[in-house]
Amino acid sequence: MSEQSIDYKQLRAKALSQPLVEHIYTADPSAHVFNGRIYIYPSHDIDAGIAFNDNGDHFAMQDYHVLSLDKPGGQVTDHGVALHIKDVPWAERQMWAPDAAYKNGTYYFYFPARNAQGRFQIGVATGDSPAGPFTAQPQPIAGSFSIDPAVFADDDGQYYLYFGGIWGGQLQHYRDCQYDPAFAEPLAHEPALGPMVARLSENMLEFAETPQQILLLDEQGQLLLAADNQRRFFEASWLHKYQGKYYFSYSTGDSHFICYATGDSPYGPFVYQGRILEPVVGWTTHHSICEIDGKWYLFYHDSSLSEGITHLRTVKMAELTYDEQGRIQTLQPYKE
Ligand code: FUB
């Protein structure tokens, strides 16, 4: 079905869940519980009048808002602008998917943007409230590149930053953390590029180590191949822990799935397990997973409110369930 032929009224009625807010467009929701309240760190979508292209230039966001609610189904508060690009000395454009973490009385807000050379890097901003506002560090994280930072706080007090995305996210131009515009996506029969991970330093503002590529394996222990676009990593990394196992989830981009893979270490390797979310309306799909009062929730977005405009998205949440073996049950974004 082409997106032009969709009856959006009907689609919205059949949706798995309804928009969390409608007064602004929001996407790429990273959710956490801080002080017993649910905080969502989304992108703030705008229409900058830039035509759609594979580079994602039409995602021309300029600031971030933080959303919060006291419980699933509760009233959502928009805390206003938490960080604006004009207050980030190194960032020129495209404030894409962010995330946040808490440590020792400070909230750390991680975000990607393009620098003056057009290269994505990842910045950190700090604040004393989970709702912001946040004050950006003058420089991006040294050695950072690409997009979609996601922080995972492990039980042992270590924090890890996951990041990376191909195509507009530029990951294909890096090998061993070195940039060369001549580097491209691997050939179809070669292993796909993996997401990146680095442990964060004690002060949460730097990498404690050189980022390393995560290995995503199939059920035979073979690396997922570049041609396997229904399962290979594209963007939107997220890590959570369930019953002692590490679950790495991500978007497959041009095939539009949210998938997951599991492993025994925050560094992987992770073995592909299946899909979490079938394709939503709009080109991109992006998510986070958060435990709230003993239940698990998927935060995601779609473009049904804007009637299919791919860069005008809306964040949503839906309960996620696991079976006895810890397998995540696939969600259909629209009921049949
Ligand atoms: O919001 C801009 C980009 O779209 C994100 O960084 C990607 O993950 C995709 O959702």
From TrEMBL:
<keyword id="KW-0378">Hydrolase</keyword>
<dbReference type="InterPro" id="IPR006710">
    <property type="entry name" value="Glyco_hydro_43"/>
</dbReference>
<dbReference type="InterPro" id="IPR052176">
    <property type="entry name" value="Glycosyl_Hydrlase_43_Enz"/>
</dbReference>
<dbReference type="Pfam" id="PF04616">
    <property type="entry name" value="Glyco_hydro_43"/>
</dbReference>
<keyword id="KW-0624">Polysaccharide degradation</keyword>
<dbReference type="GO" id="GO:0016787">
    <property type="term" value="F:hydrolase activity"/>
</dbReference>
<keyword id="KW-0858">Xylan degradation</keyword>
<dbReference type="InterPro" id="IPR023296">
    <property type="entry name" value="Glyco_hydro_beta-prop_sf"/>
</dbReference>
<keyword id="KW-0326">Glycosidase</keyword>
<protein>
    <submittedName>
        <fullName>Glycoside hydrolase family 43 protein</fullName>
    </submittedName>
</protein>
<keyword id="KW-0119">Carbohydrate metabolism</keyword>
<comment type="similarity">
    <text>Belongs to the glycosyl hydrolase 43 family.</text>
</comment>
